[in-house]
Amino acid sequence: MLNNIGLPGLLLIAVVVLVLFGRGKISSLMGEVGKGITSFKKGINEGEKELADQSETTEEETASEKDKV
Q: Which residue windows are transmembrane per the record (predicted)?
């Protein structure tokens, strides 16, 4: 069904959305989407950093246990 939407169809949809919501509402919505994406990326980076810290801690504990034996 959606395979037949071309450039004219997308332009028509964009115009209808712009008329219904207005330019201010759409720009504020896009700003919120941008903030959400930024927050998501920040969360991903923090999660990767936390995993790296945990793996370093585990390696240090393993090394100290081997030294004790």
A: 6-22
26 touches 17 (CB < 8 A): yes
Return the ∠ at Cα 43 (arms to 38 and 45), rounded to 5°. Answer: 95
Buried b (16+ CB within 10 A) or exposed e, 19-56: eeeeeeeeeeeeeeeeeeeeeeeeeeeeeeeeeeeeee
What is the mean predicted confidence (pLDDT) over 20-45?
91
CB 43 within 8 A of CB 51: no
The number of residues in the chain equals 69
This prediction has a pTM of: 0.56
- Encoding tokens for residue 69? 């034996």
- AA identity, residue 48: E
